[in-house]
Amino acid sequence: MAGLNDDAQWIVMMGFVVSFSFFFLAMILNQSTVVGQTTAESVLDFPKNDIRDVRNVIINSTETGDPGYVHDDIIVISQFRKNAVVYYDCPPNTPANPPDPQITLCPSNSFTSIDIHYNNGVTAYNETWIPS
Amino acid sequence: MVTDDGQLYTIEGVAAGMIMLFTAYLVLGATSVYTPGDSHISDMQLEQTGTDALRMMNTPVNGTSESQLTEIVDTLPLVNGAIAPATNAFDPTNNFNILFLNYVNNKTGSDYVLNISEADNLHYTAEVTYYDRKNTTTEGLLISSNRNLTGSEHPVRVTQWVITNQPVPGDTTMTQPRAVLVEVLLWRD
Predict the structure, then answer these.
(1) What is the edge-to-edge ordering of all strands in the sheet holding A124-129?
(2) Domain definitions of chain A by residue range
(3) Of A16, A23, A70, B123, which residue is 20 to 30 A from B96 by alpha carbon distance?
């Protein structure tokens, strides 16, 4: 090398190594906020609490027997206030042929299953709940 | 007299200069858009706190009694006289205020009533939405609030379904259970 001696090249190399490690540490630090933010956004986007709540009220309402008032309340208020399309009914044991287009209400404690449907445009949730 | 010793130093200097210029160019050219994106993190936590508080209020202490939230909704005097104003000592508005503020503001080692300076600083506006079958509209009714919304807050909305045995306005039957939605706007300042 012109006018240089190549003693102590490892010092130069360590300099490189240290700078690169700083660079990567900075990058990790830089990404940490994004990680928290995208996680929080995903948690907010997914209507976990809404689904649990509406599912809870539907199942509870069938315990007392509901002639259709709670059914209508849940469907209407969900659309107006929660921007979600919610529907549920209790399919009969022996489905009519062709199927009965009417709402099959959930009589008190005498049904075999509840079909619950929830859709807020982002998340669709469908469940067939069977009392144990 | 110029010698050509140390040419590598020259090359290194030029290279370092170019790297520095390029870095400065990158830094100055980067557009920084400052958005309140980080608020999602506190929003998420606030929403969970509020939902949990409402769920606690909507959990009965045993199998036969009503939950506190159901009791509050049941005794709420509704606008057009479908429910008579509470005649007993139970004040739904005040009860909701005390319970909800306690649940959301208590922190470890603090008590919202006894030691307010160490408690959290959450405020709320709560209303209940019901479906008026006669007019086929949904209507809201204020339960209570401890602070007015002025527009500078950044609230989150949490909700809880409640089945009430009391008739709501527009209810013709007056005896059937109805589902109403308790909605709370919750913010920290």
Answers:
(1) A85-89, A114-119, A124-129
(2) 10-45, 48-129
(3) A70
Q: First vs last Cα of chain A: how many Å apart? A: 84
Six token digits for residue B143: 């339960």
Quote the distance between the C-alpha of residue A43 and its chain's center: 7
Distance (Å, rounded) from C-alpha B149 to C-alpha B93?
Answer: 18
- Please tell me which residue, A100 or B28, carries the higher pLDDT value: B28
Alpha-carbon span A113 to A124, nearest angstrom: 19
Q: Does A9 touch chain B (CB under 8 A)?
A: no
- CA B2 to chain centroid: 75
Torsion angles phi and psi, residue A47, rounded to 5: -80, 60
Instruction: Provide the edge-to-edge strand list for the sheet that holds B178-188.
Output: B137-145, B122-132, B178-188, B156-164
- pLDDT confidence of A101, banded at 50, 70, 90? low
Cβ atoms < 10 Å from Cβ of B114? 8
* Alpha helices in chain B, H assignment, sequence order: 7-29, 39-57, 68-74, 92-105
pLDDT of residue B50: 94
The pTM of the full predicted model, rounded to 2 decimals, is 0.76
Which residues in chain A are closer than 8 Å to B169, comparing Cβ atoms?
none
Tell me the mean pLDDT per 10 residues along chain B, length 189: 78 91 82 64 90 93 88 75 55 88 84 76 92 88 87 91 84 79 92
- DSSP one-letter code for A85: E
- How many contacts, defined by CB atoms under 8 Å, are there between A and B? 95
Q: Which residues pair with A115 in a beta bridge?
A: A89, A128
Looking at residue A117, its pLDDT comes to 94
Sign, CA torsion B48/B45/A75/A100: negative
Angstrom distance (rounded) from CA B18 to CA B36: 36
